[in-house]
């Protein structure tokens, strides 16, 4: 059987799971349904070398180092990580992956997977994939349909026709999110499946079809690769060329227009984890049907979803509520309205509220930092540095810094001297001092940084040397 090239599409922002998921750190990078993140679970699902080639990832450029680090943490890497300078939905991302794949193998078969879906049975997933291989090799575009378990109005539906092979049916039509009465009719007919958004297809067939259906889009993707540049282990797509690509899903650009679409009814359980209600459905419920996660508690609260990564959330005498708290934001809604979180986030974005897109943690290739407190002429940060990582060699024109090691070991460069600091030791970096922080040890380095000065903006950094080749 021909091996499959797995492609993870990780350009989504997951705004419907705000405030936990945000543009700067979306849901695929979060451990929402297990100890591992959705991205890590997706990568593990296609790790069998007997069935799959090396992994390819198409991702938002802002998340590049987090994605690489999360793959490293599970002992995996990607053959190629292509970086999108801006979001353009799944059709351009699929074309980028196909154009890359053809360089390695003109007969490549791609498995296109969103990075943020939950699938509980990997073995059943592989069995379902194998049912679609022959059709994909014959230039059909294979979708995987999920058997509806309820008249859900938030999913797209596939109208399935007659069988055209073992376990494979012709696609008659796509139906957008229906109203409740229509969804109930679809459910009763047994001829409709939820559209999982997972595709198996020939890279050559995809490019040939898109050359007819979306020639300008294909041309923009070709130019984005040609004018792109290598950056460490990543390929940065050219921003100007990629900006010319039409923002469109693969469903709209290809699947709804082609005559070669088929569907394999899936034999695995699936969820796109698109809403807080979906997490409530999957979660461990108490005797009153309430899911409690993190720093939360409930008393006489029925059928609620309560989650806090920040302050204590305590619910009393309520029902059907969703309450999600982070360190800087709290969402309160009902399970019937959580589909509308996205427009709420857009409203926050338009008003210039940073919580619409940014988390309290700012991720860097070496780890992350979090502002603990700030005021006039001072700022306090908690800095976490991964084992073996180092910050850039840098200096500041307007601020001085104090570093206090809380956990681990820090190798500090200060002008022409190097000092090894251990737990509860500290150092002072005067304004204009050339300095660098490195974690030489096997465990996470945590330190507190106290900044003082007339200007404390993040742009007051002059990098003199940087392992990660940032400007």
UniProtKB/TrEMBL annotation:
Residue span(s) of domain Mannose-6-phosphate isomerase type II C-terminal: 354-466
Task: Give the organism the record lists.
Answer: Microvirga terricola
**Enzyme class per UniProt:** transferase
Q: Where is the Nucleotidyl transferase domain?
A: 6-283
Q: Output the InterPro entries linked to this UniProt entry.
A: GMPP_N (IPR049577), Man1P_GuaTrfase/Man6P_Isoase (IPR006375), Man6P_isomerase-2_C (IPR001538), ManC/GMP-like_b-helix (IPR054566), Mannose-6P_isomerase_type2 (IPR051161), NTP_transferase_dom (IPR005835), Nucleotide-diphossugar_trans (IPR029044), RmlC-like_jellyroll (IPR014710)
Its Enzyme Commission number? Answer: 2.7.7.13
List the GO molecular function terms.
mannose-1-phosphate guanylyltransferase (GTP) activity; mannose-6-phosphate isomerase activity
- What does the similarity note say? Belongs to the mannose-6-phosphate isomerase type 2 family.
Q: Which residues form a coiled coil?
A: none
Q: Which residue intervals define the domain MannoseP isomerase/GMP-like beta-helix in the entry?
A: 300-348
Q: Which reaction does it catalyse?
A: alpha-D-mannose 1-phosphate + GTP + H(+) = GDP-alpha-D-mannose + diphosphate
Protein's name according to its UniProt entry: mannose-1-phosphate guanylyltransferase
**Transferase in keyword set:** yes
- Please provide the record's keywords in A-Z order: GTP-binding, Isomerase, Nucleotide-binding, Nucleotidyltransferase, Transferase
């Amino acid at each position: 059987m021909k091996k499959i090239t797995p492609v993870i599409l990780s350009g989504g922002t997951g705004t419907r799971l705000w405030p936990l998921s945000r543009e700067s750190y979306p849901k695929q990078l979060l451990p929402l349904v297990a100890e591992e993140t959705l991205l890590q679970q997706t990568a593990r699902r296609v790790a069998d070398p007997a069935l799959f080639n090396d992994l390819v990832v198409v991702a938002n450029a802002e998340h590049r180092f987090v994605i690489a680090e999360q793959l490293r943490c599970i002992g995996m890497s990607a053959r190629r990580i292509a970086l999108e300078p801006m979001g353009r939905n799944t059709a351009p991302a699929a074309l980028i992956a196909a154009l890359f794949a053809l360089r390695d193998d003109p007969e490549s078969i791609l498995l296109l997977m969103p990075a943020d879906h939950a699938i509980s049975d990997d073995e059943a997933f592989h069995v379902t994939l194998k049912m679609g291989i022959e059709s994909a090799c014959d230039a059909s575009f294979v979708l995987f349909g999920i058997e509806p378990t309820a008249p859900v109005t938030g999913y797209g539906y596939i109208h399935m026709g007659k069988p055209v092979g073992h376990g494979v049916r012709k696609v008659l039509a796509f139906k957008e999110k229906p109203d409740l009465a229509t969804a109930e009719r679809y459910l009763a007919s047994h001829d409709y499946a939820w559209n999982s958004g997972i595709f198996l297809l020939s890279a050559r067939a995809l490019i040939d079809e898109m050359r007819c259906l979306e020639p300008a889009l294909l041309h923009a993707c070709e130019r984005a690769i040609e004018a792109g540049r290598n950056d460490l282990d990543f390929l940065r797509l050219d921003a100007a060329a990629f900006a010319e690509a039409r923002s469109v899903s693969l469903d709209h650009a290809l699947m709804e227009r082609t005559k070669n679409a088929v569907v394999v009814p899936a034999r695995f359980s699936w969820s796109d984890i698109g809403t807080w209600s979906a997490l409530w459905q999957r979660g461990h419920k108490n005797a009153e049907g309430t899911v409690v996660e993190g720093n939360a508690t409930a008393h006489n609260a029925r059928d609620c979803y309560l989650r806090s990564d920040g302050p204590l959330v305590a619910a009393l005498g309520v029902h059907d509520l969703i309450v999600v708290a982070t360190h800087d934001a709290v969402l309160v809604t009902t399970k019937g309205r959580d589909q509308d979180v996205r427009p709420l986030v857009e409203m926050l974005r338009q008003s210039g509220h940073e919580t619409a897109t940014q988390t309290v943690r700012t991720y860097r290739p070496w780890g992350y930092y979090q502002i603990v407190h700030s005021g006039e002429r001072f700022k306090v940060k908690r800095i976490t540095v991964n084992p073996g990582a180092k910050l850039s060699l840098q200096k500041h024109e307007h601020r001085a810094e104090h570093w206090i090691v809380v956990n681990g070991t820090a190798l500090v460069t200060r002008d022409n001297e190097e000092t090894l600091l251990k737990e509860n030791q500290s150092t002072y970096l005067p304004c204009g001092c050339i300095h660098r922080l490195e974690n030489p040890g096997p465990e996470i380095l945590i330190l507190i940084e106290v900044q003082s000065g007339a200007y404390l903006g993040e742009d007051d950094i002059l990098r003199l040397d940087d392992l990660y080749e940032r400007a």
